[in-house]
């Protein structure tokens, strides 16, 4: 049998395949067929096959490729698969909406918690840091008999003055105590703390 | 076309079906030799593929993926029906025999094809699969290895043995002498 152009092409492709193999390119897919919809087609046979074997292989292929396909097969397959596809889409629409809503709500809750936590950690606290409280030295003995202590003792739990009749002397003494405290850092610190 | 189908384009999907369904059918009917079962498996394959299409990532392996699903579906169906591929019956052979005449002359086509079909049907199932995927699905040996989940060397060896066996069987009747 004469050498046909088709066979020459097959031989060229065969040498390409042999070269791939010799480079150890035994991966499932070469770069040649990566982006393609179809793979690169049947490989030509190597030199292990006799000419008779190659012809037989070609005839087998010709024979198999001509197996008749029932009339309207593609139409029936298309209709069945499209029906399946549409049904699947309908099923997906319902649950997916609620799933998305749940995801959004969860995300919003997470963000709210994160913002609150960040505010609590970095923002000005509602109470002074404990260290400040401890850093204010207070002489307990002096404090007990100091006029400021008397004033503070008259405050109720809400920090409001317990109502009583204020005499001129009381007010005078208390104002003096405040003025004195302003000049004394320790006492002013304490007073400021208590006034908060 | 495939990407359009993945994105939900029904027209693109229809074109895919038109292109691939005859090949899937031929591969299946060549193995089970039952046209009704082959059509059922073909339909089922495309229904499965279309439902998984949204999750498919295109890497150039669509064809291998499609035929793998088809082969698995056929195997499951054969198992479900409790039977294996049976040697081809004469009437079934005639039903699925090629409509054309390949490279044989008109006079010898019928007999030669019949003998070749018979010889192929008598091959071990694994070797038949390689021939069908090579010639009907028109796949490379690498793609066949992927579909069958076998090493490339195994697929090459199966094909080599299949051709040798065919030649031995047909050589006795002198069928392949004409083509050599």
Descriptive tags:
heterodimer; A: 196 residues; mainly alpha; 8 helices; disordered N terminus; B: 180 residues; Rna Polymerase Sigma Factor, Chain: A; Arc Repressor Mutant, subunit A; 2 domains; 9 helices; 72% helix; globular
Fold and architecture overview:
The complex is a heterodimer of chains A (196) and B (180). With 196 residues, chain A is mostly helical. Among the domains of chain A are: 73-126; 130-195, no CATH class. Chain A has helices at residues 5-22, 51-65, 73-122, 130-135, 140-145, 147-153, 168-183, 185-195. Mean pLDDT of chain A is 68; it is low at 1-37. Chain B is mostly helical. Helices cover 72% and strands 0% of the residues of chain B. Chain B has helices spanning 2-6, 10-32, 35-52, 62-80, 90-96, 106-121, 125-135, 141-148, 152-173. Chain B is globular. The relative contact order of chain B is 0.11. At the A-B interface, helix 2 and helix 3 of A face helix 2, helix 3, helix 4, helix 6 and helix 7 of B.
Summarize the topology.
The complex is a heterodimer of chains A (196) and B (180).
Chain A: H1 5-22, H2 51-65, H3 73-122, H4 130-135, H5 140-145, H6 147-153, H7 168-183, H8 185-195
Helix pairs in contact in A: 7-8
Chain B: H1 2-6, H2 10-32, H3 35-52, H4 62-80, H5 90-96, H6 106-121, H7 125-135, H8 141-148, H9 152-173
CATH class of the largest domain in chain B: Mainly Alpha
Largest sheet of chain A: none
Main interface: chain pair and counts: A-B, 50 and 66 residues
Q: State the separation between the terminal residues of chain A, measured CA to CA.
A: 109 Å
Q: Name the CATH superfamily assignment of the largest domain in chain B.
A: RNA polymerase sigma factor, region 2, helix turn helix motif
Measured on Cα atoms, how large is the radius of gyration of chain B? 17 Å
Number of DSSP-assigned strands of chain A? 0
The parts of chain B where pLDDT drops under 50 for at least 5 residues are 98-107, 176-180
The coarse silhouette of chain A is rod-shaped
Query: What structural class results from the helix and strand content of chain A?
Result: mainly alpha
From the helix content, strand content and strand pairing of chain B, which structural class follows?
Answer: mainly alpha
Count structural domains of chain B.
2
Beta-strand share of residues of chain B: under 5%
User: What oligomeric state do the depicted chains represent?
Assistant: heterodimer
The radius of gyration over CA of chain A amounts to 46 Å
